[in-house]
């Protein structure tokens, strides 16, 4: 399956260190060789890089790895195709505009039986089930809230209800961001870490590279990194429980909800952290 990488911060941060290890999984340390993409939010704008070539050998990925773009929210994806050809139009993350802001969506999963009707307000360019889900999510949000963008808590509640429609139909790990918040759905496997003071050294799993964050941060910095599999071998990553939806704001977890039945929470129950 595909690999996901997200970053949500309280100060603009570059993702060069995490991306250096992540890109190796696109054809070097793993088999995900059907394209890659990364999107950076900068204010209300979004800078998007997409390439249907394996990220481990991509000159564009090397450019991104060495170019310290600083952002509050980043969404990246390495593809292993399950539906749709290996092509630029099928490369994640996908981007659309809603309420005067760019939205980015990346998906790791396979939901061939989920075929929601689209009303034309958001239309897929490619042929993946992932892009169709993204269009349906934004269409449903517009139908619910009209021209008035909701507060973060209302947005999370709406996305939770919408995710319930397909969470039980197959694998549906995803990252969704509007540049202000990051929403992550763990269907099978996602992990995250919040880096904050006191900072220390981190060493990548996929490449022999280490960084001492004490030299690069201030005591008030807070950075959440979400990924399909942990990127470092000397930090304590949190494994998200399958069947959960999470919201990150300013580098912290602010909401969590079940999307599948669990022994501790009934279906549909949410919690604000």
Write a concise synopsis of the structure shown.
With 273 residues, this protein is an alpha+beta fold. The protein has helices at residues 16-22, 59-66, 129-145, 152-163, and strands spanning 3-14, 36-42, 45-51, 70-78, 94-98, 101-110, 171-177, 182-186, 191-196, 201-203, 210-212, 222-227, 238-239, 244-249, 252-258, 270-272. The protein has a single domain, classed as 4-Layer Sandwich (Glutamine Phosphoribosylpyrophosphate, subunit 1, domain 1), CATH 3.60.20.
Explain what this protein looks like in three dimensions.
By secondary structure, the protein is of the alpha+beta class. It has a single domain, classed as Aminohydrolase, N-terminal nucleophile (Ntn) domain (Glutamine Phosphoribosylpyrophosphate, subunit 1, domain 1). Helix content is 16%, strand content 36%. It has helices at 16-22, 59-66, 129-145, 152-163; strands spanning 3-14, 36-42, 45-51, 70-78, 94-98, 101-110, 171-177, 182-186, 191-196, 201-203, 210-212, 222-227, 238-239, 244-249, 252-258, 270-272. Strand 14 and strand 15 form a beta hairpin.
* Assembly form of the protein: single chain
Low-pLDDT parts are 263-269
Report the end-to-end length measured between terminal Cα atoms: 30 Å
CATH C-level label: Alpha Beta
For the secondary structure, the number of strands is: 16
Strand residue content: 35-45%
Question: What overall geometry do the principal axes of the alpha carbons give?
Answer: globular
- Output the CATH topology: Glutamine Phosphoribosylpyrophosphate, subunit 1, domain 1
Counted up, domains total 1
Looking at CATH, the homologous superfamily is Aminohydrolase, N-terminal nucleophile (Ntn) domain
Mean pLDDT equals: 89
CATH architecture: 4-Layer Sandwich
| Side-by-side strand order of the widest sheet | 3-2-4-1-12-9-13
Structural class: alpha+beta
SS field, number of helical segments? 4
Radius of gyration: 17 Å
Work out the helicity level: 10-25%
Main β sheet profile: 7 strands, antiparallel
SSE order, as H and E? EHEEHEEEHHEEEEEEEEEE
């Amino acid at each position: 399956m595909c690999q996901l990488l997200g970053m949500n911060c309280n100060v603009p941060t570059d993702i060069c260190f995490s991306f250096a290890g992540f890109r190796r999984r696109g054809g070097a340390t793993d088999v995900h060789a059907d394209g890659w993409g990364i999107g950076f939010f900068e204010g209300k704008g979004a800078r998007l890089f997409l390439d249907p070539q394996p990220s481990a050998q991509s000159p564009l990925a090397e450019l991104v790895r060495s170019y310290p773009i600083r952002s509050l929210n980043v969404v990246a994806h390495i593809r292993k195709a399950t539906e749709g050809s290996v092509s630029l139009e099928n490369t994640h993350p996908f981007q659309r505009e809603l309420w005067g802001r760019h939205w980015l969506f990346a998906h790791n999963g396979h939901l061939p039986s989920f075929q929601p009707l689209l009303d034309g307000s958001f239309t897929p360019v490619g042929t993946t089930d992932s892009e169709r889900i993204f269009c349906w999510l934004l269409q449903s949000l517009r139908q619910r809230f009209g021209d008035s963008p909701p507060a973060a808590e209302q947005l999370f509640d709406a996305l939770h209800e919408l995710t319930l429609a397909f969470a039980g139909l197959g694998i549906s790990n995803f990252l969704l961001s509007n540049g202000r918040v990051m929403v992550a759905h763990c269907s099978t496997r996602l992990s995250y870490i919040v880096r904050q003071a006191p900072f220390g050294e981190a060493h990548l799993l996929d490449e022999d590279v280490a960084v001492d964050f004490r030299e690069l941060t201030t005591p008030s910095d807070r950075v959440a990194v979400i990924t399909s599999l942990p990127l470092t071998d000397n930090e304590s990553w949190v494994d998200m429980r399958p069947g959960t939806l999470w919201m990150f704001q300013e580098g912290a977890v602010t909401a969590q909800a079940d999307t599948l039945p669990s022994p501790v929470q009934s279906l549909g129950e949410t919690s604000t952290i």
